[in-house]
Amino acid sequence: MKKLNVKAFVAIGMLSSIAYILMLLNFPLPPFPNFLMIDFSDIPALVAALIFGPIAGILVELFKNVLDYFMTGSATGVPVGHIANFVAGLLFILPTYYVYTKMKSKKGMTIGLIIGTSVMAVSMSLLNYFVFLPAYTMFLNMPAMSGPEMRSTAVMFILPFNFIKGILMASVFMLVFAKMSNWINKQRSLNTIA
Description:
Blueprint: H1 6-24, E1 27-28, E2 37-38, H2 42-52, H3 54-72, H4 80-102, H5 106-139, H6 147-191
Antiparallel strand pairs: 1-2
């Protein structure tokens, strides 16, 4: 296992900044509630993971959310949404990374992105039902949602939203990957860490 070197730290800082900017360029999808926003900030984290290993991807996800929390704050006063975004990013990039490392090809990347999208969508539905939606209502001092109401929100909104978000991110990433795959693989062979 190689340690993060100066080049890796600089790249992680740069990719975190890009991820933060992409996070600011979020937008809603009309059929979904306003707290569900599409952004492409997981793409730099995936690039970091592919080049420097999963720790780098995790750090990019962490730094972009910390930056966003300090710059924009949170309606709840605590970073519930930022924690949810961090977890969703990890659930997308880590399965994609691990599948791609086993099948180093465009087909492997496609399968990885499909698995990453599926893991993120299903896991975030469950986590929203059990953790994030109750936390939002508690910190916003709102009346607690009933079980059927939370189940409906998780199944009717959060699950399809995360599938759509994953498909959009995967589509954009595949365009980037098609142009940069040789460079990413070359950088990866020079800089891999665990």
